[in-house]
Task: structure prediction
Amino acid sequence: MARVSKRRHPHLEPHSPLGQFMEEHLEWLLINNYSQDTADHARWSIADFIRWAEQRGIEHPMEVTRPILESYQRYLYYYRKTNGQPLTFRTQHSRLTPVRRWFRWLVRNNHILHNPASDLDLPRMEKRLPRTIFSAEEVERVLLVPDIGTPVGLRDRAMLETFYSTGVRRTELIHLKLYDVDRERATLTIRQGKGKKDRMIPIGERALAWVEKYLREARPPLAVEPDDATLFLTQYGEPFHPDAMSNLARNYIAQANLGKSGSCHTFRHTMATLMLEGGADIRYIQQMLGHADLSTTEIYTHVAIRKLQQIHAATHPGAKLENQKPEGTSDNGHGEEEKAALLAALEAEDEEED
Result:
């Protein structure tokens, strides 16, 4: 049977038909080339639903109805974490999506006759801005923290430089191999990134120089046989665990005393924002980040605030301490149609909010 990791949640023995069908579904995901992360997340989400259902005497998928699923959805809505906070709507959506896919699979494989989740309305996803974005100066302060006089510190500097230069995801950096770094072309090849997609992206001269220094001076004493060609190795000569990588980045950011928290993804957000503020076309940033949909990348247009501040200061009559009238403007009624259209649009927006 295909392996499905169980490291992210308490063990659930598949005693009931619900548990047995979950195991079959997880195997099907891997056989059909879904990622291990997708299978792990599905196990966590479906097992949570199974535990909830079995506490209510439900042990077979045929006993699950749409009202039962709606009751579980209400349970997620009212659930409170140990800190008293509710689950975000994004988390609720993330928990329900694998359950809905599981019931679709159950129908297609004739384990149940009807799909009770077919018309289940998922929570609307919030459109949130990144929590933390560093300035270029703040990033430089973080990069200076590692002690480059040690193999581990040199490795860490090379990893942080790579995060900042390329915006790769945590797991993408962990899975980099020696042959994925093309020094002549100054590129990285990301293999089987999110969505099982390969992509080639540039890496800056400075980051590449630190990676080369790491390869010459730090990786040889860290490597142990058999060497699987993983680029960045732990002190035990092994690939990083994702949690260990997050803790490493988080600790360096804390040591920089920026007054901000962050982790690996913060470098990704920062790279995209600074490139956009520097004039990069959003489609190039989309390619760098490996986003399938441009709308995912467009979030960075909302955090690239500097250009908007410049336009605001140059065009808004109340933006300055001294109330100055923009040059070339007059009160002759020019632009009244545009202003009327804008006001109409704002009024329509207000009605939608109400």
Q: What stands out?
A: The first strand starts at residue 181 and ends at 182. The beta strands are 181-182, 187-193, 197-202. Residues 17-108 form a domain with the DNA polymerase; domain 1 fold (CATH 1.10.150).
